[in-house]
Amino acid sequence: MNLQAEMATLVEEFKTTDLTQKSFSEQKGIGFHKFNYWYRKLRDEQPAGTTGFLPVRTQGSSVPAEAMEVVYPNGVKLRVPARDLSLLSGLIRLY
């Protein structure tokens, strides 16, 4: 296995944990800066359309029909008018 494939495997494993990058890299015996470099490199190489967001749920939502809620991976939640799709699109691209 080459280095990039090995690091990609570690990055995917990291995403399934609740650990910080520093704790994870210490547990795996690799330097934090090395892990962080590969984490960012592989994240930036994601194919278009793979943003890490979850699919939009339209049934059973507690958000009123006239609003949509954007929840970023860091936990920040924003409610925006559902009719303003350009604003919604812009907020999604910010992350």
From TrEMBL:
Supply the name of the protein: IS66 family insertion sequence element accessory protein TnpB
Record lineage: Bacteria, Pseudomonadati, Bacteroidota, Cytophagia, Cytophagales
